Amino acid sequence: KAGVTQTPRYLIKTRGQQVTLSCSxxxxxxxxxxxxxxxxxxxxxxxEYFSETxxxxxxxxxxxxxRQFSNSxxxxxxxxxxxxxxxxxxxxxxxxxxxxxxxxxxxxxxxTVV
Amino acid sequence: xxxxxxPPSMDCAEGRAANLPCNHSTIxxxxxxxxxxxxxxQGPQYIIxxxxxxxxxxxxxxxxxxxxxxxxxxxxxxxxxxxAVYYCIVRVAPNSNSGYALNFGKGTSLLVxx
Lengths: 114, 114
What we know:
The complex is a heterodimer of chains A (114) and B (114). Helices cover 0% and strands 53% of the residues of chain A. By secondary structure, chain A is an all-beta fold. Chain B has strands at residues 9-13, 18-23, 31-38, 45-50, 55-56, 61-64, 70-75, 84-92, 108-113. Chain B is globular, with a radius of gyration of 14 Å. At the A-B interface, strand 4, strand 5, strand 9 and strand 10 of A face strand 3 and strand 4 of B.
């Protein structure tokens, strides 16, 4: 079956612009989480969505937002981009059935802010 | 969630067993130990998880000490493709109440050499 699909794979933006990243979870997975990975901070949790509702949020400024659609696809948006937002953004989906299942991650979107 | 301590790096010869330790001395009774790995430029991959019994799957074995304060991930016959960063994560079983956020920490960079 298809894995978690993230688009685009690479993106270059200018400071001050905004960006929208997309994530299509595995079919049947209803939970979608987003992570930011940078060399300095490692993998950090951004937020998690389930049934179109944000269920958890990490410690990121309000410039980072997201949403989930009725088909479980999710988007995250970063407004007023800063150089420090350059990172690999990873999406993970889960069956939402407890400890027995791990998360499946996509390959990520690498965002470069110049 | 309980904090984990892992060595920053380890080496292993191809074909030998790789034993990756993780300390989690403050683990609570309802917290699981999860292991993920991240191969360069890819999203993290779920390996295995356990509560208090040793676990084995097609990828690895997880040995949890009786007091649950530490664990070891064992890759029985390491290959070059096992070169990756390995993350030990301790948290309650994810569910609709606790959510699905993972605290990855720094992990252990495993280098498998020919």
